[in-house]
Fold each of these.
Amino acid sequence: MQYTKLGNSELNVSRICMGCMGFGDAKNGQHSWTVDEEHSREIIKKGISLGINFFDTAIGYQSGTSEQYLGRTLRDYAKREEVVVATKFLPRTKEDIEKGITGQQHIERMINKSLKNLGMDHVDLYIYHMWDYQTPHYDIMEGLNNVVKAGKARYIGISNCFAWQLAKANALAEKESFAKFISVQGHYNLIFREEEREMAGLCTQDNIAMTPYSALAGGRLSKLPGETSRRLEEDSYAKFKYDATAKQDSVIISRVAELAGQKGVSMTEISLVNFSKKICLQPSYFVL
């Protein structure tokens, strides 16, 4: 396993991060295809044995059960100081807004709930899951800064944003002496390469780590044409992202399969190695 510093931080992470969206109670959340705790533990334990020390989950993954599975497994198989744990929070709901819960109050509630789920007193990286257009930008950045000041997160990151939003956020943080985003987790793989347009350049200039999600396009880049899986059949969110371009994507997927056959390796290896060379990534990120 190779390791690297995560952007402008002191976090030493494996270049492959274990994404935990596939872990959690399948009856309690958005996805019907997630794996139960017993199988989640097996995967996490195997990852640790192979040198993975970077784990990414979210409070939104199966109503927090992904966090719970991860936290319990890491307590059993790893030392807390030897792993890097990231989790994410979602924007306020309509009901939160109607109740007058501020962005800062929401962030405090979310980090406290995540820490309880994980059974930890802090996370290494706390990620703003998606841009909140209903909350003042200053409120979000100050709320995240408060989390860092309280010792509940060592660093902050952002996910699912545009390059201009990341630049604006870090400019505000610098002006106000708030914690800055040290990583961005965007959708990026061999068949979805939008991050190369502007985000990659910004991150290279400012040494912001890129931790792409869906590196295998929900399994599409790891299976031969015609192969299927429960996730491919049931993941409605991935179908929303990929079905409209399936014909064009099939050209790339077939080429990945061809190269894998020529090299005698898996399609997963071809997909991860090739897309990680496209831009200057920090850790390559994949979702199981």
Amino acid sequence: MSTNTLSPFKRTVAGVQFMFVAFGSTVLVPILVGFDPAIALLAAGLGTLLFHLVAGGKVPIYLGSSFAFIAPIIKATELYGMPGMFCGLAAVGVVYLLMSLLVKLFGVNLIKKLFPPVVIGPVIILIGLSLAGTGVQMASNNWVLAIISLAVAIACSIWGKGMIKIIPVFFGAIVGYIAAVLFYRSGMDFTPIAQAKWFALPHISKMSFSWQAIIFMAPVAIAPIIEHVGDIYAIGEIADKDFVQDPGLHRTMAGDGLACILAAFLGGAPVTTYSEVTGAVSLTKVTDPVCMRIAAVTAIILALVGKVGAAIQTIPTAVLGGIMLLLFGTIASVGINNLVKAKVDMNKTRNLIIVSLILTIGIGGAIITVGKFSLAGIGLASLVGVVLNLIIPDKEKSDAEA
């Protein structure tokens, strides 16, 4: 749908709609890691506007909180404290900027060489599986609420129409919350909502420099970087434009990186291009980038409404746990699908070794410590995968070329 066919009113409605498509996931990440949801909305809104500024306002993309960093955030906070952890998150943005520079200098093929499906597939699987225990633990607080939330999310995914099918997580959380109010009200505390101001500036967390946190967090950027590349190609197909060439993948990646750095300084989770919103764009055929900027402004306004943030924090843990059972499993399934679509041959010893070591190192909680520096979890597993892919020769490919 071209810009000229949309009236200002329709643009506004479309923009608000896009924000609500991303709303559930955007606030869910900070809830799971102990951040202020209002900061996540503020970071998403400001980050999206910054992205559009860097990318020349040409790409209909919205940025929201990245699920790839939930497990690393929890572990880094435990190891280095929250101020140090935010330093590590800022480093993620720097990795984006470095990759942007490499893409500018050497082209998109460099990304494909460093991060082929045999590496990125198991990394995505690992992101989902590493969080499975958290989802089960949260759901176990009240299995009735968890199952209600999960059932609604599944029903919306399978039988939902239009926007309902695109935001099943949002509807699952809403219905679960209503069920909690109706049947378990005595266990809920609405005091935060009553005490919250209607308009309030979110609390911005402090950051302190930590080399350890930087080394711990930086490698985790691999998965969202690949997701970013995929989303840029996807939105290009939907809009029938080549955004990889204009404004250029290096510019979109730089915009995403700067938005991550901004989010870290505000005290929020790293942001990433949101596939949910890309799906909504595909459904509605509204490819006007202005609508995404309207969505960003809407998120900023909501971030300043104190009672919204307070209400989000009253959502029962079990409701979120039920949603997580589906969401984390879905993330792992995306990784499996990535391997299948790329036709990665698991009969090859080389591929079997790379995938196996990424999964066992990540799920097993391996950690490498040198002095005060340590690397563990998804970051370590991702780095191992990249290195193995580069040093283990592909004999069949070499024989074919010969």
